[in-house]
Amino acid sequence: MSTNIVVPVKHVPDAQKQRTFQEDLTVDRGESILSELDEYPLEAAIALREAAPEAEVTIIAVTVGPEDASGAVKKALQMGADAAFHVADDALAGSDALGTSAALAAAIQHVGEEHGGVDLVLTGLASTDGETSVMPAMLAERLDFALVTRADSVAWDEGNTGLALTRPGADATQTVAVHFPAVVSVTDQANEPRYPNFKAIMAAKKKPSAVLSLAEIGVEASTVGRDAAAASVQSATARPPRGAGTVVQDEGEAGIQLADFLAQRRLL
Question: Which residues form a coiled coil (predicted)?
Answer without folding.
Answer: none
